[in-house]
Amino acid sequence: MFRKTTMQSGLRVLTQQLKGTKAVTVLVLVGAGSRYENHEKRGLSHFLEHMFFKGAEKYENTKEVSEAIDSVGGTFNAFTGKEYAGYFVKVASENAEVAMDVLSDMMKNSKFKQEEIEKERGVILEEYNMYQDTPMYQIGWDFEGLIFGDQPLGWDQIGTRDVINSLGHDDFVKYKDALYVPDNTVVAVVGNIEHEAAVSFVQEYFDMEQKEKAFDFKALEDISGPKVSLKNKKTEQAHIAVGFPGLSERDNDHWVLKLLSVILGGNMSSRMFLNIREANGLAYYIHTSTDNYVDGGVIVTNAGVDLKRMDNAVTGIIAEYKRIREEIIYPKELKKAKSYLKGKMVLSLEDSEEYAHLLAKYELLHDKATSPEEIMKRIDAVNSEDIKRIANKLLVPEKMKLAVIGPYDDEEHLKSLLKFE
User: Which domains does the chain have, with CATH numbers?
Assistant: First the structure.
């Protein structure tokens, strides 16, 4: 069972000892994702994530940061989500102190030198271009823009070209001082290390003054936006996303919706895969998934389809949404979905970084870390009637939306496809 200690500063430390591994992951999770931005600062959270690796006091540049981790055979990385940013180092357990040393120096003492900002600006712009040129990634952001509209939850994390070009030293310092504070930060330490040892390292290296975050992100507004997003682009394959507003991660039916998405298109024996791809050959890739935030969510089916059969793929996906509302969910199908979801969780938690992420995320966003065993109990409690109830509540034609990237220009035609036959 995981353990928790709250430091005098307000910093929370979560640990889970895994005796079956010789590794340990130290993860720092901060409530500083892209939801905290406004139009003038779109992309700041992600840009700042990059800048933390550019030099602090002890490790003065990227080379020294990399060498410190490479010298013990470790790995390190970072990520920016919509509600938080994360930084982790994974090392052999005897080198846990090295991970603490490097991460704390980055978090506490980064310099954000203007010359490093200019170098990294080019890197960020190339990343921006990469996503623009990769419709399989871009379609998901386009769809969330449809669902959430012109507010931070509807924006991608990479930001806009104008903002990326305008950010400077003072922007990073101000944002870090406002959000990278103890009460808005969780350190998760997972692997072959005892709780007391982990807490001792955190006390030594993350010694911070008590401080609360300066602001929170704005609650999700109710936006009734357009039904269709069409990006006219010359492609060899159409990329489509068909779906609906979902549930927040705090909703009691959160795991019901997760299971519904697995039954619909979560794996290679799901309804979407078997009926859209295998039986009719309408898609190369197809999958149904959910994105869940503290006050909103999405359920969506993404697919890459033949340019000439895009209409057939959209109507085929919609038919599966309609069918799951009307037909019985047999116990065998639900049992298979539960086993799949729990099995994927077990496999992912073999990685100490994934385990640390799970603990830190729930603690940061919900003020209460959740164990894998608790999650599995919630999954097991779902029944067929629950699936049916949520399908009928959420999968309704009035709420259905469609995002398309491909060589098309007729939005009205796309709107006409959004109906249950």
Answer: 3-205 (3.30.830.10), 228-417 (3.30.830.10)
